[in-house]
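[User] I have long wanted to understand how a fold can be written as tokens. Those tokens are not coordinates but codes from a learned vocabulary of shapes. Could you go through the record with me and say what the backbone is doing? Thank you; the sequence and its tokens follow:
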Amino acid sequence: MLPAANRLTRSQDFGLVVRRGRRAGRPRLVVHALVPTPAATPVAADDATAGSRTSAQPTLDVQSKVGFVVSKAVGNSVVRHRVSRRLRHVVRDRLPGLPPGSSLVVRALAPAATASSADLAADLDAALRRLLR
């Protein structure tokens, strides 16, 4: 299970990561990553521009956040949940290696339904290497 502090839950945050983040596609999944820039650090509450600076990022936090998208194209409910569980397990082991405050959206593609956990881990590692270089 992914800790609650590391879950991307709000629809707006998913949309922001997908729209503004970088994308790396692999045969079984697509990873969208939004890594905060130094300019996106929060400012004092009395500053009138505080809202405009922080709105460009999902919740600014030192914890990395991850969300998953597994559509019906992957398979029926049983298959989708199996894929999501495998992805959660694979991502949980890689959380410490992510930059602080980063947000990821991992979108499973149809071939993920028949992939093993090792295949998903290899695709995720390759996508993360490409995004975080």
